[in-house]
Amino acid sequence: MTRVQARMLPDGRRLHLNDGPIDLIIGAEGDAAEVGRAYAAVHARFATVLDELTAELPLLRRRVEAEPQGAVARRMWRATEPLGRHAFITPMAAVAGSVAEEMLSAMLAAAPLTRAFVNNGGDIALHLAQGQHYDVGLVDRPDRPSLFSTARITPDDHVHGIATSGWRGRSFSLGIADAVTVLAARASMADAAATLIANAVNLPAHPAVTRVPAVDLQPDSDLGERPVTRGVGALHSNEIAAALDAGVAFAKLLLGERCITAVALHLAGQTRTLGRIDAGSQSQEIPRLR
User: Fold this and answer.
1) Structural domain includes residue 252
2) What is the CATH number for 181?
3) How far apart are CA 260 and CA 254, in angstroms?
4) Measuring CA to CA, how many Å separate 53 from each of 35, 84, 201?
5) If residue 149 lies in a helix (H) or strand (E), which one and from where to where?
6) Each residue of 129-183: pLDDT tens digit?
7) pTM for this structure?
């Protein structure tokens, strides 16, 4: 029996691909024949991705060092290697964004498309032809999705990746951010940067924060004995501000290095935004309300 599951969603436009822990929602627009070729190409490429990653897991779970061999693994390494000088990070911090990025690349190599996206659990790779745009919803808590705003992305913004991280998400976090959403030139970099910025939103040793060694929850976690956040109690407004200040400081570092384009940070009802979507004279800070 085949392990990879593929089906068109009820709207007849989006493709759903699943293989174990990897679950993708894919959309493509353009000439119907070209869209068909793009979907066939991404289905074929997806069939081997999990096996490729599994073959190099020991290396990918270690602090960034030697470059791996697989195409997705190399995307993970390239996204995390420049960040390793700032904080602890392994290539696994960019796995979801890198898979999305690789799948989008396979589609675009097979066919010209006007718009396309690959959504890997909220880490998204985007393609826009000239004259196209996406309106992207921004959430303040990934476990209880509700839009607080939208950002309009155009080709001139040079944003091809969006990722969200935080202690309430599906992956472990060292910080206490409810959500950190990053826009970047690549989905792999957005994924890695969101992880580190969310880690930086923190109040070390605060009694209201419950932490557990990562290996107690997942024995093979790349985070090892590092304490990951499992609960955040009531915080005073000045404590919320201090935690967000720490995240903003790290985000400014990544903005200055041009690793990311923009970021929104959320904690306990407070929001900070940094960066710009449009590099031109009419640029606006995110989020841009519709």
Assistant:
1) yes
2) 3.10.520.10
3) 6
4) 27, 20, 30
5) strand 147-153
6) 999 999 887 777 777 666 667 788 999 999 999 999 999 888 899 999 999 999 9
7) 0.92
